[in-house]
Amino acid sequence: MERQIKLIWDFRGPDALKTAEHQEIHLKEFIQIERLPIEITGFEQINEFHSIAFMVVNDELMRKLRDVLKPHRGELYSEIV
Prior knowledge:
about 80 residues; alpha+beta; 4-stranded antiparallel β-sheet; single chain; Alpha-Beta Plaits
């Protein structure tokens, strides 16, 4: 199985959750426009003033999407079963 990377955008401040939620909408639009084989996106609240938006990509797409979308960071993704 190919390695998967979680590309992450961090948002901070009192509107962080709303901003992360909105960022996910843009990520889904990008995936649709570019016809990418990406199924996992999301957003989550880390605490009251820190939220993230993310998309999970395979290793092959990671560099291309990193350079185009400029996420703040990335980490290895493992689906918890």
